[in-house]
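This part of the workshop introduces the protein records we will be handling. A record pairs a protein's sequence with a compact description of its fold. Comparing a sequence with its tokens is the quickest way to learn the format. To make this concrete, we reproduce a full record directly below:
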Amino acid sequence: MSRLSIKRWRSSVKTTRLFLCLVAFLSAAIAGNQADADELVHFESAPVKLSPFRIRKANEQGESLPQPQGTPLLGYLSRPQGDGPFPAVVLMHGCGGMRLSVKELWPKRLASWGYVVLVVDSFTTRNIKDTCQSYLPDRVFDAYGALNFLSKQSFVDISRVALMGFSAGGTATLEGTKIEGNEQLMDHKFKAAVAYYPVCAASQGDATVPILILSGERDNWSPADRCRKRLARLSDNGPPIELNVYKGAYHDFDAPEFKVGRRVFGHIEKYNPDAAEKSIRSVRTFLQKYLSN
């Protein structure tokens, strides 16, 4: 090979290396614009606002009322690539805490569909292990605290945010979107809601937003019949509530970590791949319908 050919070959190799370095740099920069599912964020639950009556009584009596404070919380943020603004979903875990499918699987799935995802950890900062034999009413305020946090993010379209919960988180989702509930005290509102196997309040009727409820036919922890009774009380003027009941499915039917079923407090938790896949398709269609531009 002549000296000229060698020089040309070396120049070509150098150019190729520079090109590959540039590609690597751009790939890293693009990846850096996407938050991982385990990106830890800090925010506060929405403070419990004082009612106008309480404020008026305090003024009449010359009483000084303390400023309502929220509870410090942790959350896990995921987002699609790009600047947005994107629609978003706030996720609420069940009574057992932050299971793998809620913390990782659902955020990855939703982010791949184009949604920012904020998973709310309601237990860690409160030093709570579980609430499966008790009740934590503050979780509605946790959901709206997450919504307030998202309202400050430039990559989120705050007018297109859904609330989505699992089991006790699903129950909190229904509580947070019921007529004449705490939702009316909040500055920001959710656009839609998804509740996986919640305990429905049969005596409730209309909601403030469209809701999708997903239940297992054999779930005796969160029986679908209570949800059917609620739907029977809906007026003709309220937002639609859709109930999907999956034949042969138990509690936690969407969670692959329960491929081997288990019994908890007399209730069966078991993954059902057919019900899971059908429910995932329903969730995607529902979110596209109500969170699209």
About this structure: Confidence is low (pLDDT under 50) at residues 9-36. Residues 3-32 form the longest helix (30 residues). The beta strands are 39-44, 72-78, 86-92, 116-121, 156-166, 192-196, 211-216, 241-246, 262-264, 267-269. The two ends are 63 Å apart (CA to CA).
